[in-house]
Amino acid sequence: MRVFQAYSGTDEPRFANESELHCAKILDFYGVPWQYEPTTFVLERDGDGRTVEAFTPDFYLPEQDLYLEVTTMKQSLVTRKNRKLRKLRERYPGVRAKLFYRRDIERLAQRHGIDVAP
After folding, report:
1. Mean pLDDT for each 10-residue chunk of the chain (118 residues)?
2. Sheet holding 59-61: strands in order across?
3. How many Cβ atoms from other residues are within 10 Å of residue 100's Cβ?
4. What distance in Å separates the CA atoms of residue 67 and residue 95, rounded to the nearest whole number?
5. How many Cβ atoms are within 10 Å of 19's Cβ, its own excluded?
6. What are the C-alpha distances in Å from 108 to residues 3, 23, 49, 83, 114?
7. Residue 66: strand pairing partners
């Protein structure tokens, strides 16, 4: 039985953290089709062409052609993800991506009365 109705991937997602789960619940509540980590973008290669840095955004919204990255409040993670988003925009200018903070997800859920408890 599928837990998420708007999920358009093939295998049930395994979220890395609670913030990603909350985001999935909100997308599902609104019936927004989404995929979990469907694409990895190469950000940097070494001299031999091997990938040395890559970025896999948490969600892809196919109807909006938009990638979402959800982050926790840890400043070290926020700084690293912001850097990766800058590199993504430089190397893939046609790719649309947004960074959502855990507090943004929680506020949105609260404002609309969406239960984000596991």
Report:
1. 80 88 88 95 96 96 95 76 93 94 79 66
2. 35-36, 59-61, 66-71, 97-101
3. 19
4. 8
5. 22
6. 21, 9, 42, 25, 8
7. 61
Tokens read off for 60: 């892809």
**Domains contained in the chain, CATH given:** 18-111 (3.40.960.10)
Distance of CA 62 to the CA centre of its chain: 13
Whether the Cβ atoms of residue 91 and residue 43 lie closer than 8 Å to each other = yes
Q: What is the pTM of this model?
A: 0.86
As given in the structure block, the two tokens for residue 23 are 């985001």
